[in-house]
Every structure is written in C-alpha cells, then in structure tokens.
Design brief:
Blueprint (H helix, E strand, L loop, with lengths): L2 E13 L2 H7 L1 H21 L2 E7 L2 E6 L2 H15 L7 E13 L2 E3 L1 H12 L5 E4 H7 L7 E9 L6 E6 L16 E5 L7 E4 L3 E2 L7 H15 L6 E2 L2 H4 L9 H8 L3 E10 L2 E10 L5 E10 L3 H17 L4 H6 L7 H15 L3 H14 L4 H17 L4 H17 L4 H13 L3 H14 L4 H13 L3 H14 L4 H14 L4 H18 L4 H13 L3 H14 L4 H13 L3 H13 L5 H6 L10 H10 L1
Parallel strand pairs: 4-6, 10-12, 10-13, 11-13
Antiparallel strand pairs: 1-3, 1-4, 2-3, 4-5, 6-8, 7-8, 7-9, 13-14, 14-15
Helix pairs in contact: 1-2, 2-3, 6-9, 6-11, 11-12, 11-13, 12-13, 13-14, 13-15, 14-15, 15-16, 15-17, 16-17, 17-18, 18-19, 19-20, 19-21, 20-21, 21-22, 21-23, 22-23, 23-24, 24-26
Length: 610
C-alpha cells in the first residue's frame, strides 16, 4: 500500500457521555450527533480540512494549516454550546503522521488522542507544538495547563486550553485522562517593574522630573515583545516606601526591578540605575550617567536599551527603534512631564495648561499634542459633555498622529477621541493600527474594548478586555469589564472572571487604599457575586471620599439600582447627567440599569441624552 508522510494538525472530537445519552434519550443523542456532523462538515470545508473518521460520538480530522484547524475547532465548539447543547470535547496536536490510503498512523495521532482525553465539554485543548503555530495570532488566546506525561508517549507534553470567550477553561488540577499531570510549566517569562526614581536634588519640586523619567522608561520598555512591564499605577504605589526589593518584587509578581535616582542641578544631570534580581536582591546591572540636561533623551534611551539587552540578551535594530521616544527641547519636555503628573492626579485643567505650554515651546512635539488630546477627552467624558473639549481632543489627536504616525500612543489616543465622537469604524482602524505597532499597547485594547461595548459588540469587547488584562496582569479594570461582558453573553466564566477582577482590585487597594476607581468600579462586581453588604460599604466609602466625582457617582448609581434603591440611583444619575455626563451608548447596553428602564425619570434622562 502506498504511504505518505505529512506534517499536519490532527483534531479529535468526542461527545462526552454519548452512550449513556443514547440509553436515556435516543432522540436527543441522534440530534446532538447530527448537529455535530453537519457543523463539522461545514467547518472542514471552510478551513480546508479533511474528515478521516466519523463514528457515533466523535471524529478524527486533519488540517494542512494549524491556524485553520484551530479556527475550525473554535467555530465548532462555540456552535456546540448553543441549544441543543452538545457536550463536546476537542483535542489537537501538530505533528508528523503517516497516511496509508484511508488510515493514519504515528505519534502525532496518539498525542492528539491523549490530549482530547483530558479535555472537558466545551473546551479545546492543544499541544505545545500546536500552540507554537498559533501563538502570534491576535484573535486566538490560550492558557497553559501544565506539563503532562501522556500514556505511551515518550516526551512530556505541555497542554494549553484555547481561552477565547465562550470556551471552557477548567481547573488544571481536576483534569483526568490517559496520562497524568507532571507539574506546572516553569515560567521563562522576563518581567520588570520600574520603581519611581528618587529625587536627589535640593528642590522637592523636581519630583515631577524624576517621576517622568521613570514613566518614560516604562513606556519605552513596554514597546518590546516577550517582556512584561508593570504599569506606572502599580509601581508608583511604592514611592517613598522603604521596602526590601524581594518583597516589592513578590508583591508585583516580577523577576527584576529597576531602581534609580536623579540629581538635577542647573544644566547638569546625574542619573544612576540598578537592575536587581528579585529572587536574591543581587545586582544584574549598574550604571551612572553624568551629562548635560539636554542629553536626558539619550540617557533614557540608553537605560531602556541596556536593561532590555540584559534581560533579553540581544535587541534587533527594530527593537532598538521601538524603544526610542520622541525628543524635544528641554523647556517643552519639562512642561510635558508636569502635565503628565497632573493628568495622573486627575487635575485635568491644570494638566491641559502644561501641555499647551509644552506645545508653545515646541510646536512639533507629538507627545504634548497626544497628552493635550487625552486631557480634553477625559474632560469631555467625565467633567461634562462640552463639545468644545471634544473638538479640541479631535484637533490635537489629529496633530499628534500627523507628527508621530509610527507611535502606538498616537493611534490609541486618536481612536479614543473618535470613539467618544461615536465614529466607531474610524476608531476601530486607529486601535488596530496601534496594536499592530505595539502588541503590548494596553490603552489600545482597553479603549477599543470600551468602544465595542458602547456600540453593542459585546463578544468583541470581551475579547479585547481579555487581551488588556493579559497585557497588564495586575490591572483590575479590564478584568472587571471582561466579567461584565461575559455576564451579558451568558458565559459561565463570568463569575470566575469577576472573582479574579475583585482579587486584583483588593491587591491594588492594599497599595492604594483610597483609589476611587478600584472602590467604585469593583463594588458593582462584588454585588454581582452576592457580596451585597461589602458592595454597599465600598460604594459609600467611595462617595464619602469623592462626593463630586462623576465616575464614582455613576458606579454608585449602578449598585443602588441593582439593590432596589431606585430613587437614590436616579438622584445620582440626574446629578451626573446634569453636569453633562452622557454616555448614552454605554448606558443602553449596561445591564446594571435594567431595573430603571421603565422608570419615568430614567426615560426622561435618556430622552435628554438623545
């Protein structure tokens, strides 16, 4: 018999409990089988696959393209979870197999079959080799389940679960199949937290300059793939705190820390840095830079490049270009850094003035225009829907993009502005461009997710919030909004996701006990999982601390509405809508307001917003 050896992706599918189903309800069993067969044939045709065998409760298929095979599996599994639900499990492996007429042999077949045996209904499990082929596909998410010794397979195999919204992700410690789990996969991930640099100058007013340098290094390192960089919001929680580096590293879940100091005197600048290994506190790298003030941009670039090279071993010319930040004259840079500091403090009008001064000093400074656009965007969104702010945000974001078209932040800032103006299709293109330029651009994923939610594209919002939560694994906002999207989709992952979001928020609040966003946004999620008393406590605490904050009051209205305090909720909404807040699109798709929809006062508010 003629034989041929090929490298293919093998997919096994199996209806769990099919024999028992036949015995209890033959009609239902046949309905499930026919549904599987019809959808399988459809996806095989669409994704250029081949059905090698189809038996009563499952099938074996092959694909010449691993990516197409995984996409076929995803479409198949998601359809099987619609009514009538088919308890299907899927396993995949990419490997070398032998085709002999209508039969197929080889280790690749055996491994795919063993992986399928560990899967659970609603899940797709893949091998490490399959994962290698699809890991750069932005529309496919995965999570490692650990290393497994599979029956009659010599080498241990790492198994991943496809983790896109709607697919089951079981606890890896509960899995049973043909083999056994050996251990969790040891992480080889490179990760770093850049702590706020210490101000060694005589002038305490120079704190903004030291903070700004730290933030710019964070932003530069965040451009690199395969390096997890902790966001400013977490690392700056340790400012002025005398803590051991190992304790800080453990809290932030990173392998390395960068700490430094800045001495600025007249036109002279001295910056020292230490790259530390968290496990033992040892020094990986130490540097000192004595330069004139105008050299600050090259210093920042050198620091980022030296740190990245120490962690990654080698930087390509493309990576070196990616960490280069736009330069300007010193006067403009100092105004820009002051603006960023004020922006982080939510002193938006004051921040706006600083960005304007930066632009006066250098009319070609792209980052200043992007900062000014962000300040106007936030003023429009949270401090009153003044079209003047939206127009200014539109104008400045366009200028930033013109000056720095290769900067992900320019496209992300532009996308945010366009989404506020409900130009969703244009916003989508900007967000996608930002992600193409920097696949670690948190703002692009986060604001793109919010844009999709506002226009009712809940499945897409869930995907994007999940990506944002993966880029910043310490971020609670994206995880909580992911839980909300999953809840609307009816996913059974919603509660588990909500618990993780709450866990992240509580960890954040230990470092930032008065954070308005953590208190008010998380309160609604606590309510959803049944912790109503705690939710109300968090809500009231947020209101006491920030009685005039629009975001706090909007989130409080959601909690009160769900708790049945309709009048209190409507009082708050009338207050914030009276200030000009008017996110009509979001409100129309937010289930937190469902109890108010038939209330005359609520309908009047919506009518005014329209």
């Amino acid at each position: 018999m003629p034989q041929s050896r090929q490298l293919v992706a093998i997919m096994f599918t199996d209806i769990v409990g099919y024999t028992a189903m036949m015995q209890e309800d033959e009609t239902l069993a046949l309905t499930c089988r026919n549904k599987l067969k019809k959808k399988l044939e459809e996806e095989i045709t669409t994704h250029n696959g081949r059905i090698l065998a189809f038996r009563g409760d499952g099938a074996m298929c092959s694909f010449s393209s691993t990516i197409e095979g995984v996409r076929a599996a995803m479409a198949l599994q998601l359809t099987m979870q619609t009514d009538p639900e088919v308890p299907l499990r899927i396993g995949m492996h990419t490997g070398d197999v032998i085709f002999e007429e209508n039969e197929i042999h080889g280790d690749g077949v055996n491994i795919a079959s063993r992986i399928e045996s560990f899967a659970v209904p609603g899940s797709i499990f893949i091998s490490g080799k399959t994962h290698d082929d699809i890991k750069n596909q932005k529309d496919i998410q995965t999570i490692s389940l650990g290393l497994y010794a599979l029956k009659n397979v010599k080498e241990q195999v790492e198994i991943f679960a496809i983790s896109n919204p709607g697919l089951k992700i079981p606890d890896s410690n509960t899995l049973e199949g043909k083999g056994q789990k050996v251990r969790e996969k040891e992480s080889t991930e490179k990760s770093i937290a850049v702590l706020p640099f210490i101000n060694m100058s005589n002038d305490p007013e120079q704190d903004y300059f030291c903070d700004g340098i730290s933030e710019e290094i964070i932003n530069a390192l965040a451009q690199l793939n395969n390096l997890r960089v902790i966001a400013r919001t977490s690392t700056f929680s340790f400012k002025d705190k005398n803590m051991d580096v190992r304790e800080i590293g453990k809290t932030l879940d990173v392998t390395t820390l960068l700490e430094g100091s800045v001495r600025k005197s007249g036109n002279r600048l001295r910056i020292t840095t230490k790259l530390l290994k968290v496990s033992d506190g040892s020094h990986i790298l130490s540097d000192r830079y004595d330069r004139v003030l105008e050299d600050v941009f090259s210093i920042q670039e050198n620091i980022a490049e030296n740190v990245a090279t120490s962690l990654k071993g080698f930087l390509t010319s493309k990576e070196k270009e990616a960490i280069r930040r736009p330069g300007t004259v010193i006067e403009a840079y100092e105004y820009f850094l002051k603006g960023r500091q004020l922006f982080h403090q939510l002193a938006l009008n004051e921040a706006k003035l600083m960005f304007e001064k930066a632009i006066e000093s250098d009319p070609g400074y792209a980052l200043a225009y992007a900062g000014l656009a962000d300040a106007h965007s936030w003023l429009f969104e949270w401090e009153g829907a003044d079209n003047g702010d939206l127009d200014a945000a539109e104008r400045n974001s366009r200028k930033a993009l013109f000056l720095a078209p290769d900067l992900a932040e320019s496209h992300s800032s532009r996308g945010f502005v366009l989404s506020l103006g409900k130009k969703y299709d244009e916003a989508e293109q900007e967000f996608k461009q930002a992600i193409q330029l920097n696949s670690n651009c948190y703002d692009a994923y986060y604001y793109y997710g919010r844009s999709c939610f506002a226009r009712g594209q809940i499945q897409e919002s869930a995907h994007l919030f999940r990506k944002a939560s993966e880029v910043r694994r310490e971020d609670f906002q994206s995880m909580i909004l992911l839980a909300q999207s999953l809840r609307i989709l009816g996913s059974d992952q919603a509660e588990e996701t909500a618990m993780e979001g709450i866990g992240r928020a509580k960890k954040h609040l230990k470092l930032n006990p008065a954070d308005r966003r953590a208190l008010s946004l998380t309160a609604g999620t606590l309510f959803e999982i049944g912790e109503r008393e705690e939710a109300l406590q968090w809500t009231n605490k947020a209101i006491d601390l920030y009685p005039g904050d629009t975001g706090v009051l909007v989130n409080a209205a959601c909690v009160f509405a769900k708790n049945g305090n309709k009048e209190k909720a409507l009082d708050l909404l009338e207050l914030v809508f009276g200030k000009g807040f008017g996110k009509k699109d979001w409100i129309e798709h937010d289930p937190d307001y469902d109890s108010l929809r038939n209330e005359p006062r609520f309908q009047v508010l919506l009518a005014k917003m329209r």
